[in-house]
């Protein structure tokens, strides 16, 4: 048997399949059922994430040792606790210390794909990629809520969506932890465009930043996506994936 | 009716038969083909997507059918080591000329490993280039070529045997 004979005969063999008996109504019902199940799983993960965020924020808020300084000037006091960092207490002028910082964990990875300047009056456009070493579905953070910080000498000078003004330790931080489904496979990272992040701390403006872009760094911080169905119990301490990149010159 | 429901109905209406034929060539069994198609449709439509283009969706469905076929047979191979065969295929035998030839080829396809069979269907039925077959099966082009070569040898041997001894029957 040669390939041409096969090409000719396979469609004839396929005729043995007979008519397709596909009941659309039954399919629609089953799709609806699975969607409900899927949303329930994602909703549960989102609720867990909100609880964890609030719990962590409360802990951070009660921590009297957290450092606060003026925008652009590094603080010399003790740095924030890992839990404070992991839950996102981001204040202008504060040094960003991330003990145990990593860009990959449990087979999931975060990387800054590109940082592009639009114009001298606005912030850069940031793209990140989320990758996995295996095929999986995970609940992640919507791109617009992935935290981005701009640092100068390790000190926060801008970013968002969570960013408090210098000295503002009272305003709680948080974002709507709406589940954002991700289908990941090895070698096929998912790219997320994070949208504009133009907020700068009061003592800075974009022309000044773009005048010396080599002095600045972009940091993306993503709560580790939750694999569904869960392969491990949820941890009380949220864990961050952190990726850094220089400003474009 | 939601957009995805209309698209599902349209896909079933316009491409259901072709998906069924594809599933049948992969599995060699009518009920398994129907299961492959239905499960793939449900899985693909159960996941919200940004864009719903008919051609894209059909491609997802075919890919899902292929992955499910390979998964099922991977599990079945393990199970086959422990359990005797419980049931035969539902394809009935008919010994009239043309039908017999088709059944012989169907039976010969059954002698291939699932990955060899997938390679044959993708390459010679779907008419995909070797590189695309390798991409679908997540393996190298060399592996695909080896599977195709081995498959042709096996098919030739199986068909020769069938012709030599037609009394043996050709049940799938």
UniProtKB/TrEMBL annotation, chain A:
Residue ranges, annotated region (Disordered): 63-88
Protein name, per record: Uncharacterized protein
Membrane-traversing stretches: 39-58
Biased composition (Low complexity): 69-84
Naturally occurring in which organism (per UniProt): Kitasatospora putterlickiae
UniProtKB keywords: Membrane, Transmembrane, Transmembrane helix
Lineage: superkingdom: Bacteria
TrEMBL record, chain B:
Protein name: SigE family RNA polymerase sigma factor
Keywords of the record: DNA-binding, Sigma factor, Transcription, Transcription regulation
Family of this protein: Belongs to the sigma-70 factor family. ECF subfamily.
InterPro entries according to UniProt: RNA_pol_sigma-70-like, RNA_pol_sigma-70_dom, RNA_pol_sigma70_r2, RNA_pol_sigma70_r4_t2, RNA_pol_sigma_r2, RNA_pol_sigma_r3/r4-like, WH-like_DNA-bd_sf
Tagged with keyword Transcription: yes
Gene3D superfamilies hit by this protein: 1.10.1740.10, Winged helix-like DNA-binding domain superfamily/Winged helix DNA-binding domain (1.10.10.10)
Annotated PANTHER family: ECF RNA POLYMERASE SIGMA FACTOR SIGM, RNA POLYMERASE ECF-TYPE SIGMA FACTO
Domain called RNA polymerase sigma-70 region: residue spans: 13-78
């Amino acid at each position: 048997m040669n390939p041409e004979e096969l090409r000719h005969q396979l469609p004839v063999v396929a005729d043995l399949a007979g008519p397709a008996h596909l009941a659309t109504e039954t399919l629609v019902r089953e799709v609806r059922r699975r969607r409900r199940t899927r949303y329930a799983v994602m909703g549960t993960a989102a609720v867990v994430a909100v609880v964890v965020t609030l719990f962590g924020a409360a802990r951070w808020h009660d921590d009297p040792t957290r450092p606060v300084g003026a925008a652009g000037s590094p603080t010399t006091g003790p740095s924030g606790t890992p839990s404070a960092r992991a839950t996102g207490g981001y204040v202008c002028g504060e040094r960003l210390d991330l003990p145990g910082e990593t860009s990959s964990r449990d087979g999931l990875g975060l990387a800054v794909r590109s940082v592009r300047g639009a114009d001298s009056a606005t912030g850069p456009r940031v793209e990140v990629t989320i990758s996995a070493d295996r095929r999986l579905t995970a609940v992640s953070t919507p791109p617009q809520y992935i935290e981005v910080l701009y640092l100068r000498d390790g000190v926060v000078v801008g970013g968002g969506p969570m960013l408090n003004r210098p000295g503002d330790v009272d305003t709680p931080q948080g974002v709507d932890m709406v589940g954002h489904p991700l289908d990941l496979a090895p070698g096929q990272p998912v790219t997320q465009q994070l949208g504009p992040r133009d907020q700068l701390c009061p003592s800075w403006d974009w022309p000044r930043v773009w005048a010396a872009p080599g002095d600045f760094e972009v940091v993306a911080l993503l709560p580790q996506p939750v694999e569904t169905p869960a392969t491990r119990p949820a941890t009380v301490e949220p864990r961050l994936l952190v990726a850094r990149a220089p400003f474009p010159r | 009716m939601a957009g995805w429901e209309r698209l599902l109905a349209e896909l079933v209406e316009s491409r259901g038969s072709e998906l069924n034929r594809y599933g049948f060539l992969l599995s060699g069994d009518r009920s398994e083909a129907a299961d492959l198609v239905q499960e793939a449709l449900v899985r693909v439509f159960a996941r919200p997507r940004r864009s719903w283009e008919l051609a894209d969706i059909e491609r997802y469905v075919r890919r899902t059918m292929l992955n499910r076929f390979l998964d099922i047979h991977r599990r079945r191979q393990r199970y086959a080591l422990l359990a005797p065969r419980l049931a035969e295929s539902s394809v009935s035998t008919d010994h009239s000329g043309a039908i017999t030839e088709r059944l012989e080829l169907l039976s010969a396809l059954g002698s291939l490993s699932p990955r060899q069979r997938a390679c044959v269907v993708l390459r010679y039925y779907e008419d995909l280039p070797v590189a695309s077959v390798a991409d679908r099966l997540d393996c190298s082009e060399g592996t695909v070529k080896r599977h195709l070569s081995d498959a042709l040898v096996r098919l030739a041997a199986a068909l020769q045997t069938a012709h030599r001894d037609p009394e043996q029957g050709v049940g799938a």
